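Hi all, posting the design record for the shared folder.

TITLE: backbone redesign
STEP: 1 of 1
STRUCTURE INPUT:
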């Protein structure tokens, strides 16, 4: 069994979908959470000067999407065939499109402007995204986004939909029956529930 070491900040963010794959896949790993001086010292050794990075027997892999796909393939969470694997990438790509629109909101310091940006994002980006993914889930008809079993797409969406539902836009999220059932379903998977119970409590 390879030795895995995940290095990320002490937040959920882009590290959490990776941790969820580790949990559901039943894979042991070192959850290395860095801050301050430790990150400053480590940064020059990373491929892109950013986190997360995964070390596999000392070899380093960057970019959260690449890490998720690698680990999903190792743990049977990347779909049952090439079509399902492609659909997983399609769904994850849609999440990336949404997150790209969040950059002005993440970086804005003025609270009034931040609120205005979020309202615009909710109307123009978040609600259309939720409409679309509610339909994707309903059309698949299994309670999962791809096929009839959990995949890395479900774990990625569990994290980011949870960020919307329990974080920045809880009220709009309430009307999405399929997505709310999905969050309960994935959160109730034994290995995921165990991880949610023991994971460090963080602000993000």
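Okay, here is what came back for every position:
SEQUENCE:
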């Amino acid at each position: 069994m390879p030795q895995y070491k995940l290095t990320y900040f002490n937040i959920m963010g882009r590290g959490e979908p990776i941790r969820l794959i580790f949990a559901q896949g039943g894979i042991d790993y070192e959850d290395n959470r860095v801050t301050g001086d430790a990150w400053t010292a480590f940064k020059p050794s990373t491929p892109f000067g950013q986190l997360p990075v995964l070390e596999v027997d000392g070899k380093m892999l960057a970019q959260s999407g690449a890490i998720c796909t690698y680990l999903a393939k190792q743990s049977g969470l990347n779909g049952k065939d090439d079509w399902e694997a492609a659909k997983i990438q399609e769904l994850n790509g849609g999440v990336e499109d949404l997150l790209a629109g969040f950059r002005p909101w993440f970086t804005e310091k003025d609270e009034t402007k931040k609120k205005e940006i979020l309202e615009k994002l909710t109307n123009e980006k978040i609600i259309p995204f939720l409409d679309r993914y509610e339909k994707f889930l309903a059309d698949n008809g299994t309670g999962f986004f791809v096929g009839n079993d959990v995949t890395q797409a479900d774990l990625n969406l569990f994290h980011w939909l949870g960020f919307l539902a329990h974080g920045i836009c809880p009220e709009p999220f309430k009307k999405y029956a399929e997505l709310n059932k999905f969050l309960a379903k994935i959160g109730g998977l034994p290995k995921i529930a165990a991880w949610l119970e023991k994971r460090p409590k963080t602000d993000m």
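COMMENT: The first helix runs from residue 16 to 25.
Let me know if anyone wants the other runs.
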